[in-house]
Fold:
Amino acid sequence: MVDREKLNRRKELILGSERAFANQVGAAVFEKPKVSYWMVLIPILFLYFIYRMQKYKHGRMRFNDEFMITRGRVMDASVDAINGGTAPDIGAVVAQSTLADGPAKHKYESWVRVLAEHYMDLLGSEGGSFEALVRSAYRGRTDCLLALNRLSTVEKEFYSALMPQMGEMNGASDIIGVIVERSQQLRRELAERVFA
Structure:
């Protein structure tokens, strides 16, 4: 029998960690405006700074929301699977995407599948914190790094498959590069922190 209260607590711990992850990745993607000495001397520059800061905050919030869409869907499918004693419905998650059939959608499905496996491992573990769930699920740094590297690899493959669909979108490849690099770094840091 599934203890729904414990399952919901684990879900919230995992999603909280994912939101923090999204926030850290977003911080690497968006350049925060800085206050300069000239703003004190020329007040109109300070108004421009305020405009840029509002745009920065809006961009970060939107990035975080978009970053969490698939993760939220995969988490819901994983929780439903545990409650129903089945495997996560990967097809239903993939069907919710707006991707056209093709290489990007196939890579998306691979990423969703690996993400669901990761969430199922964490949801099936014991602990009162996200770090405790990771320790319980992966037992050691090597297993944790293997799981997180696999997740990083399929995520990177998905982003690479998306590139042709983005066409000449200004700076898309640079942004994806930053997302991939920062994600890998944060995942390594997680494994090192949890299994120090």
About this structure: The chain has a mean pLDDT of 91.
